[in-house]
Amino acid sequence: MAKEAWMDHTHVRVTSEDGRTSYLYEVDSVGDRTCTEIAERRADGTTDDYVPSRALDDLFWGASSQRK
Question: What predicted TM-score, i.e. pTM, was given to this entire model?
Answer without folding.
Answer: 0.71
